Fold each of these.
Amino acid sequence: MERKIPTVFLKAYELIDENTMDKLDDVETPLMLVEEIEDFKENVFWVKIRNLWVLIGKIPPLKPSPEDIVLFREKGQWGLFKYLGEEEDKVVLRDGKDERTTRVPKEIVESLELFGKVLRVQEKV
């Protein structure tokens, strides 16, 4: 007897370039990856970035924790940063390539369009 893993279909997008994201067909996803997230059908989605599939949980309702990678949009361009925490009135971030650390005033981070935090990265869906 074959046991099937429960699945759900989540929205999916492809990052075409720094400015453009296109809608793709919904992706079948194992329920165990998202069942802990409130209203996961609306708050979790896949983004194909080049040859990788990234599972993203929206901010809010999710909140970044230290070491989380966050997908954001600024001035029409997409980017990633690693959230390292907060010190006084500044937020400590690392760039997406994990090369530079910077301390940014909270107001600047709050002005970004934070789409979500990376929950999983894989080559296939």
Amino acid sequence: MGVSGSGKSTVAEAVAERLGLPFAEADRFHPQANIDKMSAGTPLTDEDRRPWLESLAEWIGEHDRQGRSTVTACSALKRSYRDILRSRAADVRFLHLDGDTETLARRLHARKGHFMPESLLRSQQATLEPLADDEPGATLDIAPPAEEVVERAVRIAAAAIGSAEGPRGSAQG
């Protein structure tokens, strides 16, 4: 989880690959109306996000019912959004990729071919509710080199899956 530019997709995809888990890029679950809105620089509302989050929660839940852990790359900015993602699976954990505004803006400026404009970074940061003490998960600083962040994320996810009941659990990067 985290704001745009935090490395969610890069880290989550690498974690899924190294642990042999199904991976979902949450952006692919957005309806076209949401993509159009964000592309135009308009922040999404909670109403806009609900069907998107419910669709992703269902994907997580389908795998959970099969006894399979998953990894997704999803912003999950608010606790209420994370509650939706947790609604269909027994053990969903979050890995918050956190960084300073300058680093995030630099990454967004360098990114090509993504619908999320750099102009929405401040809106996402204002919306972000870091993990609460009672939410299962961890926070990782994105300042170190990407491979170091990935290695830490793999260790955290592997430990979470190992401590979950059976091979279940879902890590949200």
